[in-house]
Design goal:
β1, α2 and β2 (about 65-70) form a beta-alpha-beta unit. The protein starts with 11 loop residues before the first helix and ends in a 5-residue tail after the last helix. α1 packs across α5 (about 130-145), α2 (about 50-60) packs across α11 and α5 packs across α11 (about 280-300). It folds into two domains: about 5-130 and about 290-300, 3-Layer(aba) Sandwich (Rossmann fold); about 130-285, Rossmann fold (3-Layer(aba) Sandwich), CATH 3.40.50.1370. It is built from eleven helices and nine strands. Helix content is about 35%, strand content about 15%. It is globular, with a radius of gyration of 19 Å. The strands form two sheets. The protein has a five-stranded parallel β-sheet with strand order 7-6-5-8-9. Strands 2-1-3-4 form a four-stranded parallel β-sheet, with helices on both faces. The longest helix has 19 residues, at about 280-300. The chain is an alpha/beta fold. The structure holds N-carbamoyl-L-aspartate. The site of N-carbamoyl-L-aspartate has 11 residues, from α2 and α6.
Length: about 300
């Protein structure tokens, strides 16, 4: 049985097949409308979410299946002290596949160990968020036409931002990828990713503090929110939260084809005036997230259409 814990669970070839399938779903939605008739997806969300939970649910509904689940730890037996291991054993009796988000790093792995249905990691603490990465890859491939030979700026909370961690793991497998890591000193990319993933794969990267310095050289800018819930104290968060604000004036420094992505939710890091810029792709990204999760559910359930 297959699960999705990290984007590396798929080879590059398997990823390409998954993105192709998502592309076919986009072009021919009717063909897939009953592919999951009679199947159930459980969403186990111990942490807040809007897009990730609802897009998994929309994906299953679009495939003709049904959904069940909980959207906060408070409304589940976690408050009574039930372990993830016990919860997942039960969910395996209720559903055919599940997506789980949890504040603790490694929790999805625990779920996988005790599950008899495929488990999708929908975010485990500050660690990984592989379905956001699938969404990002589909968005980039659809709008740029390629996943290789690009200079990519990752901006904001590179320390706690799990979407950035997963995206780096996935992209270093394509040729000609270079990164510009844009963050304040306190929110730099963790050493274990810089060394183990970037240095060990000989990926060129530079670290800068000023967004203005990076903008003119980028093919793609991936903005992120400062991850308030992972800070140890409020003052540090308040000091960091408005460190970057991408506005129309800064967008003038960027090239005409530089795409702006953001996993959302946005707080202040992209000013709303940028939304009407043709290079702003973060709302299109949301739509791609549904197609790619439809493709993922079909792949993990081994359903061929
Ligand atoms: C991201 C997450 O949960 O890590 N959100 C999402 O799933 N699209 C990014 C974030 O919360 O900042």
């Amino acid at each position: 049985m297959r699960h999705l814990m990290s984007p590396l669970d798929f080879t590059v070839e398997e990823l390409n097949q998954l993105l192709d399938l998502a592309g076919d779903i986009e072009a021919n939605p009717d063909k897939y409308a009953h592919a999951c008739d009679g199947k159930k997806l459980a969403t186990l969300f111990y942490e807040p979410s809007t897009r990730t939970r609802l897009s998994h649910e929309a994906a299953m509904l679009n495939l003709g299946g049904s959904i069940l689940g909980f959207s906060s730890a408070e409304s589940s037996s976690a408050t009574k002290g039930e372990s993830v291991a016990d919860t997942i054993r039960m969910i395996s009796c209720y559903a055919d596949i599940c997506a789980m988000r949890h504040p603790k790093e490694g929790s999805a792995l625990v779920a996988k160990e005790h599950s008899s249905i495929p488990v999708i990691n929908a975010g485990d603490g500050g660690h990984q968020h592989p379905t956001q990465t699938l969404t990002d890859l589909l968005t980039i491939r659809s709008l740029k036409g390629r996943l290789d030979h690009m200079k990519i700026g990752l901006c904001g909370d590179l320390k706690f931002g799990r979407t950035v961690h997963s995206l780096i793991h996935a992209l270093v497998r394509y040729p000609g990828i270079e990164f510009v890591l844009i963050s304040p000193e306190e929110l730099r990319l963790p050493g274990y990713i810089r060394h183990d993933v970037l240095d060990n794969n000989q990926i060129p990267y530079e670290e800068v503090v000023r967004l203005e310095d990076a903008l003119p050289m980028l093919d793609l800018l991936y903005m992120t929110r400062v991850q308030k819930e992972r800070f140890f104290n409020e003052e540090d968060y308040v000091r960091m939260k408005d460190f970057y604000i991408l506005d129309s004036k800064k967008m003038e420094l960027a090239g005409p084809d530089m795409l702006v992505l953001h996993p959302l939710p946005r707080v202040n890091e992209i000013s709303v005036e940028v939304d009407k810029d043709s290079r702003a792709a973060y709302f299109k990204q949301v739509q791609y997230g549904v197609y790619v999760r439809m493709a993922l559910i079909l792949t993990l359930l081994e359903i061929e259409v």
